[in-house]
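Priority: low. Protein: Protein-export membrane protein SecG. Input follows.
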Amino acid sequence: MEIAKWIVNILHIIFALSIIVIVLLQSGKQAGLSGSIAGGAETFFGKNKGRTIDALLGKYTAFAAIAFLITSVVLFMLIKSI
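Result:
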């Protein structure tokens, strides 16, 4: 049981750090006037919006957040059982 706690705790820390890194890699939504003009053109003319780096980072963020939530619940259950 102690080994399971260590493994889940390490995974929990990895997911927490990955959320921080992935969120910092994403570009901001408020890029100023030039960003709003270019962003509007990109959404109007861009056909591959789902394949951009921002979309990919968004998917990774969602995965890391769900994994972080799951490891949080598992750690709670492991600690509560003792």
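Residues 50 and 56 are 8 Å apart (CA to CA). Residues 53-80 form the longest helix (28 residues).
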